[in-house]
Each structure stands twice: as C-alpha cells, then as structure tokens.
Amino acid sequence: MQYLSRKIFFFLSLLLIFSGCSSSSKDFFNAVDQIKPEEIKKHVVFLSSDSLKGRATPSPELDSAANYIAREFSSYGLTSLNKNFLQKISFGKVDLALDNHFRIKRNGKGKDFKIKSDFMPFEMTANKEVEAPVVFAGYGITAPEYKYDDYSNIDVKGKIVFILRHEPQENEDSSIFNGSLPSVYSQIEEKVNNARRHGAIALIVATDPLNHTSLKPQGFPWPSLSSFIPKETLPITLIGPEDKKIPVIQVGEDAVLELFGSVDSLINLQKQIDSSLSAKSFELTDCKASIKTSTEIMQWPSYNVAGFLEGSDPVLKNEVIIVGAHYDHIGFKKNHRPGSDYIFNGADDNASGTSGMLSLAKAFSSMSQKPKRSILFIGFAGEEIGLLGSKYYTENPLIPLEKTCAMLNMDMIGRNSPDTLYVIGNSCCPDLIEINKLENEKTGFILNYSQEKYLPYSDQASFLKMNIPIIFLHTGEHIDYHKVSDEAPLLDYNKAAKVTKLAFYTILHLANDNKHYKIVNNKVTFF
Amino acid sequence: MRKPSGKLILLPLIALLMSFNLQAQSYKLKYNLEKGKTYRYSSELSGDFTQQIMGQELKIENSTKITSRFLVDSIDKDGNMVLVASIDSGEVISKMPTKDTSVVSLDKFVNKKVRTCLNPYGKILSKSPSDTTSEGFESLGITQNNLLQFVRLPEKEVKAGESWTITTDDTLEMMGGKVLNSVNMTYKLAGKAVFQGHNCLKLDFTGDVKNSGKAQVMGMEVYIEGNGKTSGSTYFDNEKGIVVAVDGLINNDMTMATKGEQNMIIPINQSMKMKQILIN
C-alpha cells in the first residue's frame, strides 16, 4: 500500500511535472509563433512608407510613427507608465543671445573680457548671471575607478570652477585614462555635470597649455558671432530644464594671465597633476568672477514610446529588462529634382528593429505565465541626431536605472546574408553575450563578434554610459545605408524574424534569471 | 544607426593640407634650379585633430607621409620655371576611438602629374589644368602646391635679422565648392646652418592662416571657417637655390557646419608638426 501509494505519488508527480512542462512549452511556442515575417513586414511597410517622410526628429510624421507604436502596445495589453505610452522629450535649437559678459575682480580691480576673442560660451550654457569666488579644480574629473578626483580636496559649492580641458597624461599611451585616446572623462559635458554635482554655479574652461599651444577660447562656434556660418546650421539638441544648467564658458590666454599670472604657472600646475595623479585644487585668493550667458531657445517636442510588461515574480518584477529600437530616421531631401526619389525611408534603419521590438512585445504579452522580471519595450526618438532619445531616457528613466538589469537593442536587422548576425557587446558585457550564444542554439545563426566598433553608434551606448549591461543585435551595413533606396522590398523578413526570435530567447532567459550581470572594460569612447 | 560620415571626418584634413602647402610657400633669394633635373622630397605631417560632434569630442591621430618629385621641365629667359610634380609613394595613417587604425596607401596616385609655372621667387604664375590628375587625387588635398616644396622669397636683398611679409589669397576648389585661404607669413633671415651637408640660410617663419568656404558633401551644404597659426624654420641652400628642409608647427581652429539633411556645427582643433626634407 505504502509502495503503491508511493508509485501513485510518483506517477502523479510526473504527470504534474509534464503537464506543467507541456503548458509552459505550449505557452513558449505560442509566444514564439507570434514572431512572424509577415507581421514584421506589415510594420516595416507602414513605418517606412513615403507618408511618414523619413521620420525625422522632430516632425509630425515621427509623431505619427509614435502613435502607431503606442496603438500596437495598447492592443497587446501593455501598461503605459506615462500618458498614452509617450515620454515627451523637448528637442530644439539653442542660439546665443546678445547679452553676455565675463569679468574678473581681483585685488579690488575689475577686468572685462570680450566675447569671441577672450571668452566663448559652450552650447550647454545657462541663461543666467552669477558672481562668486573662483576655484581651480584641475581637469574637473571625478573617476572613482581610477582613484582620481580633482574635487577631493576642495569645496566648490556656490563657487565658480576653473578647469582644464582634456585629461591627465593626455598623450601618453600608458595613461590610466584610455591611453592616448580620450576617455569619457575628457568630454566637456561630463565635466559640466561633475561640476554641477559638486555644487559649482558656473564653469570656466581653458585649453590645457602643457599639450596644446593654442589657448584660443573655442567654446561653441555660435553662428550669431560669425559672418559666414548661417543660423540654419544650428543642430537640434535636447533642451534640458534651465534650473539644471550653469553658465559654461571657455576662456583664452588673457583670462589665464589674469587668473594665474602666467601661462607657465598653469603649465606647472598641470605638470604636478599629471605626475602625481592627485588633486591640486585650490581657491584663488581675493578673486571673483562675474559671468552672464544668454540664450534663445526654440523648442519642438518628440516622444519615446514605452510599453511595460510587469514580471510575475513578486520580488524580481521590480527589476526590468529594456528592449529598445529607435524608430526615427533622417527625413527627406530638402532640395531635390522634381520626380526624383527624395525620401529616406529607413526601412532597415530602423523600421526593421522597431518592428522586431513590436513583435517581441506582442510575443511576451501573449504568454499566460509572464517572465519573472518586468520588461520595458521602448521605441526611441532622436537616435539619428545623436542618440538623444535614449540619452533622455537614461537621464529621466521610467524605472530607476539601478533596477534596470540589462538593455537589448536592435538596430538594422533585415539585410545581408540570411545566416549571419553581428552581436555587439562582447568587449564589455560578456555575461549577456554568453547567454545569447547559448540561446542561439535554437536559431543557429553564425554569430560574428568582430564589430565592437559599433558600440557607440546606437542607443545601447546611452545605457552603457550609465553602466547598464547591453547587447546589440545588428545585421550589418549595406549600400542603401542612409540612402533613399533603403526601402521595404529590399528586406529579408525571414531573417528579421529569426533575429527577433533570438532576441526573444535571450530576453526570456534574462527575464527569468535572478543574476546581475557585470560590465568589464567599460572604456568605450561615446561618440 | 547613426554613424559619423568618413567624408566629414576627412574634410578638416583636406583643409589643413591646403593651409599647410600655402604656409610653406615662402623662401629667400632666388631659386636656381637646373633644367631637366629631378628633385625629390620626403614630407611628413603628423599630429591630431580634435572634433566636437553632437557634444562629443573625437580625437583623431593622423600621420601623412609622402615622397614626391618634381622635374624642371623648362626655364625661360626671365627665370620662370615650369615644374612637373608627382608622388613616388605615400600613405595616410589614422587612429581614432572605436575605429581600427587605418592605413590608406596613396599608391594609386603614383605618376599622376601636375604642372605649375613659378617665377624665380616662388610666386605661382599659372596653374595648368591637372588633366592627368584624378578627382580622388585632388580630393585628398594633394594639389599642385602640396607637391612643390616652394616658399615665396623676397624680391629685394635681405640681411641677417631682416624680415619680410608675404600675403597670399588663394581659392581652392574642393568637393563641389570653393575655399578661400588667406595666408599672412612673416619670414626672418635668422642665420646660417648646415643641414644634411648643405650650407643653408635659416629662415624662421610665423604666419596666420584664415580660411572660409563652402562645399557640398552628400547633398549637404558644408561651411568652413577657421583661422590658425604656424611657425617654424626653412633651410634654404642659397648657392644651389633650393629649399633643403622645412620644419614647423601648425595650430588651426576651424568650424565646419552643415545644412541639409543634418544640421551640425563641428568645432575642430588641429595641431600638427610638419617636416619636409630634400632627398636628392
């Protein structure tokens, strides 16, 4: 009896396991079946149609594409974390207005400097006037991984900070800052953010004189200060809130002389920093600066489109995997011959990746047993004008970045040989690459890891910059890249579906995992 | 996917090469070349470009090496010389983040000839059409002047310590547009020096370069505006009437702006060393 009951128990257990498996397998296969070449084609044909005029950021046609994606998300039953799945982004153009000044007050005497010849505001400068003591803060870098911090020995709260451009040991192959090539810390934007984080109210930048002979105040070459460069060349950029900005200017040799007495004094300071890799920051005695920069801003909104699928595990659902694809492209030719093709349809770049992302959203939504972790599907705007949509997202995340375990990006997934796929991220995110390789046993792609040079060139770069592990799927460039001939009939939809299925298996693995993935060797120069 | 255009990255190099050859066009006394003789030079231009595109700074380390020659085809009774220049070999090595180091050989331009007429003081009198020069050759900025290591000499006699200034405005055609280069060079006869066995006069130089122009790249209008400084020394063998070597620094701040499918403003700083030596 006992034996029998054991046998019955064992049989019942097996039945339960198999029925569970069967149900789970059915769920899995049903989901995979949602990823169909014809479904991807349907999306690509719409997104790359002439009616959307190349989906430039910003444009009404891009908004139409955003609404299409939002409607699809809604139809799959995804949750909106904001209004109608749309995350509003302010794009615009920033021009320099007339009223700008830079003045140094030292030992009771004031000296005014001229715009363009003595100082030049950067493009990220604030519409603001400040006056405060001046602090020298080396290169203005805080890099904990290199145990380097120019702010370690000084309080700059409420002060104006003076820093050097570039980074220590700039031309040395052995420099901890990415050898002789610049690291992320040499970027002006990074230095501005760091100064702001430390409480600075304005930033003065000078070319580092040890490695550069010209100390001209380059800043940003504003068309309003040029007689030759037209205003129309001003780029579209992200318009951030004014209260988070500070005045940022580059100064020339005259200001260096006024502040440090001689260029050699500054060179000596730079030499001391370079040789010791330690902070040599100090407040300049009896020295105040007054800075005013004025800007005029024209704004146009565009949108990231985000659909949320909540995870099934009570704890892990608080963590999220992001699946991204940019849905914008480069618009249309403003000057073209009558009758000629003038629309950059962007079928492969990146209606293909967007369509793959939509198919993934549909597939995961269809599962009765949702993955343990949550998944956030995002169509990014502004990729083609500098990864601006993903940059905005990482600076304004819908789910905290510390809860974001990984980001999978798909950009251009429908061309070239049917069996090969570039997988990018091997140099920085080996955990994700290994998982993807394992899951590829189901799809049988010949995976190629040789294209790490593409790391900075799509939205994954914005996430990697924030230390979020990434993996990027891409089927390679072709002769129609950024041409009017990148059209829907040229895509291999079977391949796009196969890439999307590999993405599905990889995301499912990540979303049912409880591990946290490492980033190694994050020395990517973001471009 | 968003990728920087290779052509946009190359453009500053072209502009610099154009400035470079003009900056080198100033010598002393008279050229005294031998008709029918071929002179060979090696030239090296190395340094880096720093460009800011979309808020991100990109540094490109670049080295260009060219071995060139010119044949003195004819000399008229006034001393005006017709020179036929070409390159024997050349390569451009570029190193930049996220890209493999690229080595571009200039072998396909070997034996492409350009013809220029100069007066005895190095002033260009005419530029013949470079009918045998491919478009690609000129798009690399290797125009007639680059291949000829001539600087402008003063027409009056100068003593040690004396200086003279040469101002030139030159319009160069590139990428479907024109770029105006204005160069203001001041030379000083600094002294004597022996260089590679030649008894030379050392001519120190400083100069200002301004350039502005408009071109077409991939259907976009490209605007270029810049100014820079150069300094260095030219070693001139006065007896043989030939430049033996040029050694100098160039620093140029330039703005490249595009209008069209993409609107961009790209500040560029170029910091380069140049070296040219007479081989034989």
Word description of this protein:
The complex is a heterodimer of chains A (527) and B (280). Chain A contains eleven helices and 19 strands. Chain A has 527 residues and is of the alpha/beta class. Chain A has a nine-stranded mixed sheet with strand order 10-1-13-15-14-16-19-17-18, sandwiched between helices. In chain A, strands 3-2-12-5-8-9-11-4 form an eight-stranded mixed sheet. Chain A has a two-stranded antiparallel ribbon with strand order 6-7. In chain A, strand 6 (142-143) and strand 7 form a beta hairpin. Chain A is globular, with a radius of gyration of 27 Å. Chain B is mainly beta. Chain B has a single domain (6-278), classed as Lipovitellin-phosvitin complex, beta-sheet shell regions (Roll). Chain B contains three helices and twelve strands, in the order H-E-E-E-E-E-E-H-H-E-E-E-E-E-E. Chain B has helices at 6-23, 135-139, 144-147; strands at residues 38-53, 56-75, 81-95, 102-105, 114-118, 124-127, 163-174, 177-195, 198-217, 220-237, 242-259, 264-278. In chain B, strands 1, 2, 3, 4, 5, 6, 7, 8, 9, 10, 11 and 12 form a twelve-stranded antiparallel sheet that branches. The interface between A and B is large, with 56 and 41 residues.
Question: Layout of helices and strands, plus pairs?
Answer:
The complex is a heterodimer of chains A (527) and B (280).
Chain A: H1 2-33, H2 37-47, H3 60-76, E1 86-96, E2 101-106, E3 109-113, E4 119-121, E5 128-136, E6 142-143, E7 148-149, E8 160-164, H4 188-197, E9 202-206, E10 237-238, E11 248-251, H5 253-260, H6 263-276, E12 282-293, E13 295-309, E14 320-326, H7 347-365, E15 374-380, H8 388-395, E16 404-410, E17 420-424, H9 430-439, E18 446-448, H10 460-465, E19 470-474, H11 493-511
Helix pairs in contact in A: 1-7, 2-7, 2-11, 3-7, 7-11, 9-11
Chain B: H1 6-23, E1 38-53, E2 56-75, E3 81-95, E4 102-105, E5 114-118, E6 124-127, H2 135-139, H3 144-147, E7 163-174, E8 177-195, E9 198-217, E10 220-237, E11 242-259, E12 264-278
Antiparallel strand pairs in B: 1-2, 1-12, 2-3, 3-4, 3-5, 5-6, 7-8, 8-9, 9-10, 10-11, 11-12
